[in-house]
């Protein structure tokens, strides 16, 4: 079977920019990450890995000089189609098929690489870090945002018994293995094996977002790839049980969901941010 | 061929869980036995199970085959150990 995450993202690409997803905790967290993206005038070429429907690229392209080359890569075909349509007016933007594991670019060709909530979907951590190091220029910089080991702990505690019931132990573990959720320490070690550790830092944040059940269900499109093995009837029953379990978490402020975000920063020599 | 006993494996699993659990209490205050349900108690989550199984498989020649595993057996320390020990059974 091809990568179920990529396959599902492609199938559901048309839903990805729905208001419910954009305004959900994940949409808001992505906007916060986007606000931290560097826009140094020294960058001539920028790479967005896992560009999705091209929201970040289009925003950067609308603000930045047309002489700057912006490249977005994504493995999901229909996400790329939407990104191409969105960025059509910007002649300096190029959208290509690619992933962390295989970046379609020559070595040392980007001044800056960023990625917003995509790195945890990689199928091969080591290969991906090698690829990032390969295409980044020697004095290049990088900001990667991805989810950490303790992400969504409220939901995980409530929903894992349900997923265990429907996916059975083997399916549950295969599902868990689709995401690479690292601790901050493990992330630093992973990148320091390849990148200059003196220029590297990994910052972690925990942010709890409160929302309604419908609000949270709006971002479920992001994880549908986990359930492709479930027959439709089971999937519907599973969804109902999951919704009931999530509803149980309701409080006066809404249903909480804590995003554990890791931020890998790689800076020029002498500009290492505080860890 | 591994000669590990069920009790020895249970002890190793308990030790691992005490070192890697997700509860915000010191390991010394956690009581775990062979009958503890690791999921219901909140000690480990699905990622924890992935790590725990890798740990079990690093012990001797054990292999955790989950193809037909019963979800209820799987989450209990003793049950998980029995699933792993079945990989050593001559019948398989």
CATH C-level category of chain A: Alpha Beta
Number of strands of chain B: 0
**Count of separate structural domains of chain A:** 1
The profile of the biggest β sheet of chain B is: none
Number of strands of chain A: 7
Oligomer: heterodimer
Instruction: Write down the domain tally of chain B.
Output: 1
Q: Give Rg of chain A in angstroms.
A: 19 Å
Number of helices of chain A: 11
CATH superfamily of chain B: ACP-like
- Architecture of chain B in CATH? Orthogonal Bundle
Strand content of chain A: 15-25%
Q: How many DSSP helices of chain B?
A: 4
Specify the CATH homologous superfamily of chain A: Vaccinia Virus protein VP39
What does it look like?
The complex is a heterodimer of chains A (275) and B (92). The mean pLDDT of chain A is 92. Chain A has eleven helices and seven strands. With 275 residues, chain A is an alpha/beta fold. The longest helix of chain A is centred in the middle third of the chain and has 25 residues, at 153-177. Chain A has a single domain (4-151, 179-214, 258-266), classed as 3-Layer(aba) Sandwich (Rossmann fold). Chain A has a seven-stranded mixed sheet with strand order 3-2-1-4-5-7-6, sandwiched between helices. Chain B is mainly alpha-helical and 92 residues long. The mean pLDDT of chain B is 86. In chain B, helix 1 (6-20) crosses helix 4 (77-86). In chain B, 46% of the residues lie in helices and 0% in strands. Chain B has a single domain (6-86), classed as Non-ribosomal Peptide Synthetase Peptidyl Carrier Protein, Chain A (Orthogonal Bundle). The A-B interface holds A 149-150, 153, 156-157, 160-161, 163-165, 168-170, 172-173, 175-177, 181 and B 22, 39-40, 42, 45-47, 49-50, 53, 66-67, 69, 71, 74-75.
